[in-house]
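Anyone able to model this chain together with FE2/S2 (inorganic) cluster?
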Amino acid sequence: MTKVLRICEPARDLPVGGEEIVVRGFQVDTGGEMLELIVVRHGNDLTVFKNACPHTGVVLNWLPDQFLDVEGVLLQCATHGALFDPRNGNCLRGPCVGQALHRLPARLEEGVLYLED
Ligand code: FES
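re: yes, here you go
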């Protein structure tokens, strides 16, 4: 049986408000460890990544919910500055070019975003 974990309620937790994209960090309890997640909202599209830089495995952000570069367009790792495409997680610049953030399967059901494993 597939285990389903609740991530957030996007309408409440990632409100669209004039920004091109909205990015927030969340944690889910997998029953033994806390999994750090990044959720990207682009209009009605929601993408979930594991919050782990492919360069060293650290979380991307130093501050809560601070994932975007100064232009507010790309995801940026705070440690060495790698830049990632928020649509697919591909590293575009930095020490892990050619690698990508790990995208996780998720689904929206009755306004709640769930992580599936
Ligand atoms: S740890 Fe992310 S770029 Fe080095």
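Residues 49 and 103 are 4 Å apart (CA to CA).
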